[in-house]
Records
---
Amino acid sequence: MKKFLTLTAALAICTAGVAVADPNLQSMMDDPNQWVSQTGDYKNQRYSKLDQINKDNVGNLQVAWTFSTGVLRGHEGSPLVIGDTMYVHTPFPNIVYALNLADEGKILWKYEPKQDPNVIPVMCCDTVHRGVAYSDGKIYLHQADTTIVALDAKSGAVVWSVKNGDPGIGETNTATVMPVKDKIIVGISGGEFGVRGSVTAYNISDGSRAWRAYSMGPDEDILVDANTTHLGKPVGKDSGMNTWEGDQWKIGGGTTWGWYSYDAEENMIYYGSGNPSTWNPGQRPGDNRWSMTIMARDADTGVAKWFYQMTPHDEWDYDGINEMILTEQEIDGKARKILTHFDRNGFGYTLDRVSGELLVAEKFDPKVNWATHVEMDKGSAQYGRPQVVAKYSTEQNGEDVNSTGICPAALGSKDQQPAAYSPKSELFYVPTNHVCMDYEPFRVSYTAGQPYVGATLAMYPAGESHGGMGNFIAWDGKTGKIVWSVPEQFSVWSGALATAGDIVFYGTLEGYLKAVDASTGKELYKFKTPSGIIGNVMTYAHGGKQYVAILSGVGGWAGIGLAAGLTNPNDGLGAVGGYAALSDYTALGGNLTVFALPN
Amino acid sequence: MVKNGLAQFDLRQSVFFKHKGNSMGKLGILLAVSVFIGSGQAAFAAGTTEEKPDNIKAAYSEGGKYFTEDDVPTYNIAEDGKIDWPSYSGFRRYHSECHVCHGPEGEGSSYAPALKVSAIDMDYYDFVDIVVNGRERVSASVNSVMPSFGENANVMCYLDDIYVYLKARGTDAIPRGRPRKKEPKSDAIREAENVCLE
């Protein structure tokens, strides 16, 4: 492989002077006419107060306009709308378009970075990208090759650029960044290449680095202090090293490619870390802290306030990177600042986001079987730990042994596709996978920049169910219960949107945009877009009219397994429904489809 | 055994040129194994023969591995339905190293070709060359890059296994899913594996 240029001193063209916070970003998020962040707001609720489109009229929805991105690979994330301008991104080569909503979507500017195509094969699972971010008059694009560029939102001119990682050792990016005050918070991908995950804060004025926090390693790398806790107890010295054998932590994974949320009052950021490397648990004895961990860090310094490791010593690739949704709800009569997280491992977690106390941990897919439950007894030595079922333990079954019938599969009961929360219904709307797997770990050797996996997987729809590979569910986070569940033929790989119109939108892999009743899940509208949907639904208003927009363009994880259809080696012939190949329903193509009510 | 040293030498040249002496020891061992396999490719490539040689049928076996008449690695299904160990090993290694781009069981994905087809359509030596050295197809409409695996022991030590597995998939000799019955791992294979991974 060609060596990538290391742009060590790439703090080019710095025009801005002093670092200034952007006091307007929160107020812009509060304005439902705009969609200024990939996650809708800092709380990751993906909720809009717009109600022009509502449950009574959504059935009349029509396509208002469309836009082809010119790129064929998997399209994740969504556009942003800032004032009169819509910003649309693409997968590799990571083009950004600025479209003028006041002039029928005319292209104001287009930015296409030059990236070494050798980054493509070091990206796990397609060259997806989850979108640009905005603050302080700048659009931030974190490219596949980990170059972050700040573009002038008006002209598209490069204000500064900085390199966050090295694709030559498997460090890549698929995620958006989160602007917080005078910084942007930036993650990294590469858990399947033995990358040691980290989160880095860069100053938005000039791209200089403010702090970096690794997921594992010495205390000065993982930014902990005497006050950092895990389930109410201090994490103690060397917590990022003493649950690893030898130097394995140096290639320990725990990458940070998910979504980030921010609580301004607490000045804390929240995110999750991914799987430990390798997928062969036998090669990395110990709890492998702090992989698979919900992290709460100070936004200014990066110092951790609390951790919660959901899946100690992962044996199934249940990355913990899914979004942390922040809400204020009453639990047992007490008003709480809550963090809700739907993990790949199939458990929906509710925590107090100030203290890190674990309040609820329940399965959000009844088929989850790798653990019986999470121990909630604070007096128990097992407190907070999942109780692993020996039969489904790929560690206990050992190397070169095929463990069968594990639910969920490695892609999780839910992957990165973000859920939505409606403060009106106090329910979470969760896109899920209904897929199980066989998993056989074996020994692998590490070579920098090469895949470092070490397991063979076979995936298939959950047995003794509806035969499909997905569900779209409504979840009560206070009690940890499914309120309703809509079966889907394929995994739901699209981010949801809830609105004040008492409706919830999501996309399907066949390409449908669907609207359902927020209280019952009843389907109210569907339209088949040009390609399968793995993007996230967003909404905005322009000229007094509400629009709903979705990127279609099948690919990503879904494009790997589902393109050819899944098989169940344990079933005979005659299996129904869910075994269909996605390629019978849709083909590649990057398109934005924008919907509105008829005039 | 070695019918065509020249073709093999060409492959060796390209490997060494690409990696400029990195991991020489490891590659040396790999190549020793490859040379042992030998080649009947030149005659075919030159187009002097009218008949395409049978690239599927196993003509003989050695130490648990199977080869065509032209000494190209291939799979074998015994009368009792057992598949050869290398094909089984290839199933495992394929799903560790190739699956995330090329889809389950060589079926292809939304962005990478179905290797069960490539393994049939493509000459063995071309197949090896692309795995070792990689390939780029980048244009306005295509961004397809196969990385170089020449320095990756998890691939190189099992390259023939992956190849024969994919050939078996391409001819439907092995159905999708995990192969059920297999020959045991031979001592010769175990030894070669240990040496290769060191």
---
Amino acid sequence: MTIDLKTIKHIAKLSRISVDDEKAKKLAGDLNSIFDFIEKLNELKTDQIKPLTSIAETSLKLRNDEIKSQNMREEIIKNSPEKNEDYFVVPKVIE
Amino acid sequence: MTDITKQTLSELINNIKTKKISSEEVTKAFIDRSEKSKKLNTYITESFDRAIKKAKQFDQNPNFDLKLPGIPIAVKDLFCTKDVKTTAGSKILNNFIPTYESTVTQNIWNEGAILLGKLNCDEFAMGSSNETSYFGNVESPIDENLVPGGSSGGSASALAANLTPVTIGTDTGGSIRQPASFTGTVGLKPTYGSCSRYGIVAFASSLDQAGPMSQNVKDCAILNEVISSYDEKDSTSVDFKRGKYSVELSKNIKGKKIGIPKEYRVDGMPKEIEELWQKGINFAKDCGAEIIDISLPHTTYALPTYYIVAPAEASSNLARYDGVKYGFRSKGDNLIDMYEKTRSEGFGSEVQRRVMIGTYVLSSGYYDAYYLKAQKVRNLIKNDFDEAYKKVDAILTPSTPSSAFKIGEKKDDPVSMYLNDIFTVPVNLAGLPGISIPAGHDKKGYPLGLQIIGKAFDEQNILNIAYSMEEKINFKNKIADWWIK
């Protein structure tokens, strides 16, 4: 299997990572060698095998729906790169 | 008294408890040596002034009932520490100051330990040589220009160089055990669910686990006893009866059945690794263990499985880094452009590569072929261990397929870098505990490690086997302080 440049750009879009042509070429090379290595899994027949979704054999615990942390507004917004009063600021999204 | 920084954790605890030395003296000794060891680049953030202040406070009002009384400890920069910068080795978190503390670090402060600083690591713990860190390469105290391993490379290097008496790392595919092996130190990856993941920067949530790194097995048991706890803030934390690992530590392993998996005898394995393994088998026999040949037939599929599961989870975990809520932000023409530039400039190339792999294997049309397939194979790998543990109590393997390599040697070949983790990755996929102990040197004088893998939640058993073998192996690290001028 080969991942072409068009696919790389599509994955980059989905990943929200900007990729120019040069970087896309490098990534295509890397990803192709990694997927060549991954293809080994196709040797195995797994139709009858169940997927392992969680290694910790515990069921989720129920707890009371109580408020445990309050007034964290300042803490939450503290590390924001751009803020305005109690809001995160992002580039304008409405024309 | 011997040089403070050369003392083991249990010696330091003893000497502080019997008032032979103060916490301040110990703290200053490690800080002095750290100041002289900047060339190794082990620290991302130093917290030295604060550490001395805390040590003085401890000495004024000491509590000798604690398990780590006034002991200074530096930790991997993947643990969120309240009011102390936490970067995960990434530019994207270069200015992130957590407003909360990880459970694992909180556990060690609760027992009297003092934070020395935050140690370098591969970016988001993605790497096997500490070369993906935004904050530069870490050098191993073993030799110049030698990698300490990764991703807990700063931790391993600082520990081996006596800049911290013990440390904690995280292990997703070998990130504690491989650097321990490369630096002649002890590293334990506990069972998945043993240590809380709360407050640890997430890489691959179904594999990540914090664990102790130390100079010897006893110190490892002391630290594991402190960090392992049930935590309702982590939904995968398991509420099992935790042992008093250091108290119950025993060298009596007579009659224990230790399995030797034939599939770990991989093609192209250097002769010295083969010999080390044989030496380990002989030591285990000398300790009274019974050696049994076993088979883990799906071993060869573990790395390809890991390189689907881990990037898939990483791509999802790292979606939170969008330049809005915290961390680095780049300027963009619009919201999407800002996201894309922030992530392109904020993440390094290995992280971008893995986010892309993960996004691809989870994307529409490929999910079944890759992600679902990998989850099925993961089940086969876990079943291999379940079958083996019907016959044996633990499994003995080499920790790594080679000794440490030079900085830059494998950087441009991701697949050859990934092969470093061939013996450690299956343990994470199956959620089991594994410990690496130093067991010998190669012909260059670089350390080599052996790995003991246990049943789930059977940390005590592998600690005991390691403790017993450690005495027979009698390993001495060869460190010549070459970086101190």
---
Amino acid sequence: MKIIGLIITVVTGALLIYAAADFPAWSDPASPASTYLSPHFIEKTMEETSVPNIVTAVLADYRGFDTMFETTVIFSAGVVCFFLLRISRREEEEPETRYYRHVLTGVTIQLKEGYKMPPSADFERIDAVWTPPDLIIKTGCRILIPFVQLFALYVIAHGHHSPGGGFQGGVILGASVILLAISHDLRTAVRRMSEKLIGILCAVGVFIYAGTGALCLLLKQNFLDYSALAGVLHVDPITARSHGILIVEIGVGIAVLATMIWIYNNISSAGRYRQGL
Amino acid sequence: MIWPIDLAILTLVVIAGIGALMVKDLLGAAILFGAYSFMMCLLWSIMGAVDVAFTEASVGAGVSTVFFVAAVFRTSRRTKD
Amino acid sequence: MTDLISMVVAKYNYWIYITLMMIGLYAMIAKNNLVKKIVGMNIFQTAIILFYVSIGVKKGATIPILEHGHGPNAHHVVHAVDYINPLPHVLMLTAIVVGVATLGVALALAIRIYNNYNTLEEDEILAQVREK
């Protein structure tokens, strides 16, 4: 297998290097990719959408239909992870013996024969094999997480004028919750953001995106043509396109946030939702 | 675009990529893959693709490294190649 | 000789991208461990993204965010040669995020396989499948 793989790799690589001789020179301003279509977008984006960041404008406005289905792909990836790891675990028996730890004193209680303890602030449920989270890491992450989330919201809201947007901001928001799950344990993170909420948020993000498109359709314009929102938002059509991009980016951010947390929760606990990493 | 920096980072990218595939420990492979993603992010930012670099820094170097470490933790670190 | 040097300067970036892509392809074909295969898949993917992004690079141009977008001297004429081509960036930005989603699915599959066969090595899994 290794020899066949090596032969395939070398032959493909040689063909590609031979083909690279026909490419335009690297960083050539007169290459075909930079002369045919892109000057239109660079010169007209500001007039048509009033968004200085061309990447954001093309992503959410000119190519909005494509980005909508990219968001759908991310949503389906989250659902697939859930089905692969979580659904089959549901049938597994809950452990007969449960352990609860008193948070202040560290005393652990063992309940046998399927007895449960009502949820309270004094006790937390732990696994049979349990490693205590480190105090320094816990405190450090507690201080860090609000700032990470604030930065993520800034990235989403300021995507029109600086690098950033729904995808990046959503991933950073998701990473802040993942940081909570790593520094404490998975149960703490799931208590803050339950499985049901994550599933709903995932669908809500895609719904906001598709709903904005459908709203434009109802207002007698094309699907995802945000200038139709001018009457609803009481602004001129060009500013309406800028606002439409922001609404759509928020939808993307919510969907990406929920999907990242969902995939992490399922992978780190192999679908069991116990202590996690 | 400064070519010595470009060439140095391209070399580091190739080294990190080969290292991630050669190392005989999956946790090491995950961390080297994070380094690879971060070098890639630097490469894109010197090419002027700031949005792509930002995405790679948050997604590639951040979240996907966490996914790899989580998956290795749930399976095994052992590998034969 | 000068022809050769100018060709190397113009093309060495493409050659290194192809090298990276082939490293990923070889890992996908020949590596025995499933997580190593997934790492190879990601290297292949980032190499292609790198190639696309490099198409948009222009000598002497700046990042694709328009200067003085709003404010007193807005609405000035924008010249396309001053800004890097933004279209490859847009295509690749979504590809990266979709890439991490597919990475999650791939790792979930690897975990399921590990739970069933208790190994990540391809040959050991195949041997167990043949026994059954």
---
Amino acid sequence: MIGLAHFLTVAAIVFAIGLYGLLSKRTIVGILMSIELMLNAVNINLIAFSRFITPEVLTGQIFAIFTIAVAAAEVAVGMAMIFRVYYDRNTVHAARLDEMHW
Amino acid sequence: MVDFPLLTAILLTPIWGILVLSVMPREADKTIKMISAVTMAIALGLTLYAYWAYDVSLGGLQYIENVPWIPELGVSYALGVDGISLPLLLLTMLIGFSTIFVSWNVEKRSKEFFIQLLLLIVGAVGTFVSQDLFIFLLFYELGIIPSYIMIVVWGSSERVSKEYAAMKLTIYLLLGSAFMLAGVIALYVNAFPAGMRTFSMQVLAQAHAVGNLSENVQIVTFLLLLLGFGSTLSMWPFYSWAPDGYAAAPTGVSMLHAGVLKKIGGYGLIRIGLLILPLGAKFWAPFIAFFAVVNVLYAAFVTIAQKDLKYIVGYSSISHIGYILLGFAALNVISIDGAIANMFAHGIMTALFFAMVGLVYEKTNTRQVQSLGGLAHQMPRVAVGFMLAGMSSLGLPGLAGFIPEFTSFLGAFKVYPLYTLLAISGIVFTALYILRVLANVLFGPRRVEFDTCRDASGVELVSLVLLGTILVVVGVFPQVLMGMVNSGMEPVMALLVKLHVTPALLGGVVQ
Amino acid sequence: MFNQYALSHVVLIPLLPAISFIIVGFFLRRLPIVAATVSVGMSLISFALSLGVGYGVIAHNITVENPLIQRVPWLSIAGLKVDMGVYIDPISAMMLFIVTLVALMVQIYSIGYMRGDAGFGRFFAYLSLFASAMLGLVIAVNFVQMFVFWELVGLCSYLLIGYYFHKVSAREAAKKAFITTRIGDFGLLVGILFLQILFGTLDFQQLASNVPAYVAQHGTNLLTIVAILLFLGPIGKSGQFPLHVWLPDAMEGPTPVSALIHAATMVVAGVYLVARAFFLFSALPNAMEVIAWIGAFTACFAASIAFTQRDIKRILAYSTVSQLGYMMLALGVGSVTASMFHLMTHAFFKALMFLAAGAVLHGLPDKNDIFAMGGLRHKMPVTFAAMTIGVLAISGIPPFAGFFSKDEILLAVSQVSTPLYIIAVVTSFMTAFYMARLLIVVFCGSEKPDNHPHEAPMSMRIPLVVLGILAVIGGYIPYANHFGDWVRFGLASHEGLDWSIAATSTVLSILAISLAWHIYGSGKVSPYNLSWRFGALYKLSFRKYYVDEFYLWLNHTFVDGLGRILNWLEIHFVEGIVQGAANLPVGLGNLVRKAQTGKLQRYGLIMFGAMLIIVVWLVLLSPLFRGALSGGVY
């Protein structure tokens, strides 16, 4: 039978992929996508915990819906910023966007 | 009339002035100055009334007001004055009133200037009338920020740039106040158990008596306060901000800073340091006495080598602070009486000195001693002001400086004979540099280049007449000041006597 | 009765000149005639009151042991009570008389001398304040009052010496006077503090009654130090060696001021202080010895300088220093009577000589060198007569005033110490010589062709006549009227002259005057030749033993040097520390800012790495895991 541990494992794998992408992707579009992956890993966790530990209340599910909504907003804002950056700098490479130091 | 909140009125008058000024159009230059003057005149009048109506024979705190503000923390809007703070309050008002007229010729952004000047005054007034540490700190910080802005915007650069001087002054004082804050919090936390904690100075002063403050706590806390108040008071080695700051500041700010704000340090040492932490005071007193002597002699010799009038007055003021510190360190009634009275006398004298230097600078456009000379020919009134300030500075009897110095020496001589001897030798060097300045600036052949300079007249005379009169009146009738100061110290006498016989860590020597 | 009124209103004596100072100084500076009238009028009333006091002292049998004292509380704090008041005994009554008299004479004289001066009103205001301060000092009831007025006297002398403040030399002299006396005041102040701590009071009367008990109980060691500290004040004020240097320079003031400073105010304050505190000094033999020797040395030292000086006022100044040395010597050997007697006669003849010198300078403006004068006796007969009387009086020729007082001093000294007596007699010889030199060179001989001297106006001649009469009779009348029974301390004075001492000193003085005539008057010997023959000695004396140069060097090297060194430290070292402290956070910031690469993904990596470490750390620490390690639940 598929139990809590399986869900958590999948979530961990997805999270790790997202984290890897976050740290290794060269464009910010990729980074944004990786963040979405990580958020979804968290969503899986939330729902899994809710389903297996407190099945009588739907807190986890509701939280997941919130997260999805916020993530959608985040993508919208994030993409807008990326476009803006692209217009200004003509690049979306994370390594080249390093003016904000010293 | 009994219930009239006199101190609140005194405190609110300049605030009210600030509010009115802030809605004035900035072109209304004359009106702005008039409003400031009227405001300060009212405040000075109220303070004079308070001084006159204070019952010396009764002593203790009078005109008390107490409104709880943040009861959870034990903060209350507590005001009150006694013989220690009332002379300093009067000093603030006298100098504050004079600075308005000294700054009469400020044309650049006069609205902002006078608002900040009044803010500075409010800060000083607040520290002297408050009986609550929280409020005290609040007002203390209020004084620092305007000085920064005023030095940068209206100051002058001579040896160092005004921006540098302002930054130095601000950082020193803020750093000092950070130590002070730490000390106050340490005091607040240790004095009473949770639930009974309070910022009230009166209640905190009881903590030692009931045995809540252990010796070690007192010693550490006093050190923190000493670092804070010591830098305010420009105690050696925390004085470096003072000469540069005074030199760069506009005249009014120099007067207020050297005359009044500095005295907050001495006042704090007595009100908080001595009255709340007597054992701490006793522990550190020998160190303070040593630094006091260094203050006197070191600053006197540095003054001898100065060329700029404002630096001369600045360093000489540091030198005089040594007498105040010595009086404090001796921890007996006569010497502390002298120290408090000296704060008053020194304030008036330094303010007059700075006012005169400001006048000379305004008229001749130079402050360098070697490029001045013979000014008594063209400006006899300024010369009189210079003479009064100088003579009071070298402790001439008949002017305000003598009796405070005499009593400080007398009290200190019993406790620190050697230090006092060294400090008294300072009067010779003081005479040396003061007389040199007077001789080189005022006397000597007439110089044609100053023939176009007109003598002080009109509003320029206000500070000269007011402060000069005070110097003479207090000098001839010292009881006016000393009686008041003594009434403030008399209740403390029992504490001091007890302190002398308390076996305590003294000057780092273990019991 | 007037003397009753005077005795109960002694306070008016210093107060009236003070009022005159305020009125003249603030309101009448532009009205010379009115200013002078007010000033002289007030002085006249003061003088009249002093006469009343003097008469009252005799009439009411007020003696040194039984003084009249009035006190008003001035300062009262816990542990310190200070009064201001009036202390009348024969000594202070005599001083009141001298001070008001000389002040009055000087003011009358100044009307003529200062006519047309731009600062006429200011001058009279200062003169009034000066007199007021000195009178306040004379009637002091305690050391604080004494010190207060003592310093005010110093201030007034500063203002008056520097009266011609456009002259650099005047302003420097004024500064020098103030600072030099300040050095002495340092000792005085410390001594006063000592007294307050040892006795708990500074009141003369209470101290006088406490000192013997203290000496009996604790001995004299500490008290001797205190007394010598106190004596530093008089050393400065009364121009005793080594703080005498300001007094000759004080000649930069207008001549009437010199007369006032030298005869009645300022310099005699020191002598008066010792006399007033004599109950203390007389109990301390060692301190007395110090006073006597300093006095004797100063007397001889200053006389040897006066030998070669060429400036008329400077010669008089050194003679003052010398005579003050005499007074100190008299005090040092224990004779208040002789000292006070000499103080009085000296006031008469020294004021007379200074005013006469002023008349000379008034008649010959811009000339100070006595060798540029000569033959003035024809054109200035009154001045000549006045100066002659003064010289004879100071030389101790009978029956002039100085003879009696000097004899009194010599007698007192001879009874105590032979070496001191010899010094005193030698000084007396020297005094007669250099004073005769001055008189002969200025007034005798032939007139110089470029000089156009004229006699002084009436207002200047009146004081000369009055003081001249006093310089003649001012010695014999007090002597004949038992001066010593009144003005004394402790023992009653002796009766009569000691003929052997009187004869010795008189003969020596006459010899000295003849010698001076031989050298300077007869024309047989060339003074220049003499000075050339004793070149080194002459130079040493002419340059005042290089004491001024030494002090200047000391001041320049040590005080200014130390100032410059500390200022250099201040700018480079202290400022450096401050800068360093300020640079520390900046440097630290520079170090750590390198970590801020701006690479977003590196930040993320560090963040997650750190989080991982923290998580692992927490897990390792958790009791659950530790339990597992030690072979627990699983």
